[in-house]
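To fix ideas, we reproduce below a protein record of this kind.
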Amino acid sequence: MLDHESLQALGEELWFCRIERGWSVSEAAERAGVAKQSLYRLEQGTRSSVHALTIYKLCRLYDLDLRQILGRRGAIAKAS
């Protein structure tokens, strides 16, 4: 599981990547194969937990390395 700080860091990075591409939440969620509400809540930092598969799909969509995102933010996380 990712801690709250790590989820916020991930959400911020996902938001930035989506905006940079000019995609709506709906478009990004559809491209990734995740629920629109899940992506929105993750970007807004209102998720208390998220499935590993959702994180994987979103990181794959944006070509992100989760370890780098968390390392840049100084977050300590352990995915299970």
